[in-house]
């Protein structure tokens, strides 16, 4: 079997194997590209009034507890805090997927909304399906196979060009 035939067969079969993982990666990647522009993916970042935090951690937690949709009872419900002093706010990300934005100056809740970007990121890297098993066992090999397809596609692109050049040089 020649190298050209091998690359075509490799390209052909990898296309079928990679269809589902690549569809997930491409679709989630397109959504992640728009996360700062589409409120459905990630809530738009508001502006607060203070650049120096006037609230301590307990004050932030008490404001988040006042948001009924967030259903936060304590620190165990909070995944992380994203403090943005230049924007005057703190984003409180809850394990439930909700995001509550609190004004650092006044302590007022600026916005509460469901945040889908973390879920979409877990789809994108494959960890959504079976954690590290699917991320390293399916999506990493799919990425390596995609690299193989890319290289075989370049080869399939180059072979006809090189052949035409050789024919022109022989006839000249």
Record keyword descriptors for this entry.
172 residues, alpha+beta, 5 helices, 4 strands, 15% strand, elongated
Please outline what is shown here.
This protein has 172 residues and is α+β, with helices and mostly antiparallel strands. 54% of the residues lie in helices and 15% in strands. The chain has a 4-stranded antiparallel beta sheet, covered by helices on one side.
* Model regions low in confidence, pLDDT < 50 over at least 5 residues: none
The percent of residues in helical segments reads 40-55%
Distance between the termini: 32 Å
Give the number of DSSP strands: 4
Helices and strands: which structural class?
alpha+beta
Indicate the overall shape. elongated
Strand order of the largest sheet: 1-2-3-4
Structure overview:
By secondary structure, the protein is of the alpha+beta class. The chain is built from five helices and four strands. The chain has helices spanning 3-33, 57-65, 117-125, 127-130, 132-171, and strands at residues 78-84, 89-94, 98-103, 109-114. A four-stranded antiparallel beta sheet has the order 1-2-3-4, with helices on one face. Helix 1 packs antiparallel against helix 3 (117-125) and helix 1 (3-33) crosses helix 5 (132-171). The longest helix is centred in the last third of the chain and has 40 residues, at 132-171. The model has no long low-confidence stretch (mean pLDDT 91).
Give the SSE layout.
Elements: H1 3-33, H2 57-65, E1 78-84, E2 89-94, E3 98-103, E4 109-114, H3 117-125, H4 127-130, H5 132-171
Helix pairs in contact: 1-3, 1-5
């Amino acid at each position: 079997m020649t190298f050209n035939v091998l690359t075509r067969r490799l390209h052909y079969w990898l296309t079928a194997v990679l269809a589902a993982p690549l569809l997930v990666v491409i679709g989630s990647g397109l959504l992640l590209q728009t996360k700062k522009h589409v409120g459905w993916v990630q809530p738009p970042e508001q502006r607060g009034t203070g650049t120096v935090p006037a609230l301590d951690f307990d004050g932030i937690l008490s404001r988040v507890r006042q948001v009924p949709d967030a259903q936060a009872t304590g620190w165990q419900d909070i995944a992380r805090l994203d403090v943005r002093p230049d924007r005057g706010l703190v984003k409180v990300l809850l394990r439930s997927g909700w995001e509550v934005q609190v004004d650092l100056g006044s302590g007022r809740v600026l916005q509460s909304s469901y945040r889908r970007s973390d879920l979409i990121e877990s789809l994108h890297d494959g960890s959504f399906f079976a954690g590290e098993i699917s991320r390293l066992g399916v999506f990493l090999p799919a990425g390596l196979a995609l690299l193989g397809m890319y290289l075989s596609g370049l080869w399939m692109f180059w072979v006809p060009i090189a052949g035409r050049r050789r024919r022109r040089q022989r006839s000249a």
